[in-house]
Amino acid sequence: MLETPARPELKAHREATTTVFSDLIRQLVDILGKKLIAYIGGVKDVRAVDRWMEGGDAYKDADVRLRFAFQVAKTLREHDDKRVVQAWFTGLNPELDDRVPIRLIREEDLEIVGPEILRAARSFVAGG
């Protein structure tokens, strides 16, 4: 029987904190795809994502937002396939008052919405 830890995002948090940015982007692209990564990173096209995978620096606060998105994506990916994770990021989420997680990650203050998003991800993983 597979046991779900009480805080499934802790391993993902460690990875998000310690992984080299270019490697993190490659893994995140594998889960979410370049277009969603570009959206989270606040860039207009995927060429910036390609540059990040090649070792380029992120713009403004994109690094923080992408690392947070990675943490959430990895937490969800441990329990569901990529298609489900992508749908979770882009769909209206009842745990977030029917707001869209990817938009919150891109546009809002992560100090405020980050804990809400993590609670929603935990709830989803727990099946609630």
Question: What descriptors fit this protein?
Answer:
128 residues; mainly alpha; 8 helices; 0% strand; globular
Helix content: 55-70%
> Tell me, what's the shape?
globular
Number of strands: 0
> What does the average pLDDT come to?
92
Question: Rg from C-alpha positions?
Answer: 14 Å
Low-pLDDT segments, ≥5 res:
none
Strand content: under 5%
| End-to-end C-alpha gap | 19 Å
From N to C, what is the helix and strand string? HHHHHHHH
Q: What is the count of helical runs? A: 8
Query: How many strands, what sense, and barrel or not for the largest sheet?
Result: none
Number of domains: 1
SS content category: mainly alpha
Question: What's the gist of this structure?
Answer:
By secondary structure, this protein is mainly alpha-helical.
Give an overview of the whole structure.
It is built from eight helices and no strands. It is mainly α and 128 residues long. Helix 2 crosses helix 5 (62-77) and helix 5 runs parallel beside helix 8 (110-126). It is globular. The model has no long low-confidence stretch (mean pLDDT 92).
Helix-strand layout with pairing:
Layout (H helix, E strand, L loop, with lengths): L8 H10 L2 H12 L1 H8 L5 H7 L8 H16 L4 H9 L10 H7 L2 H17 L2
Helix pairs in contact: 1-5, 2-3, 2-5, 3-7, 5-8
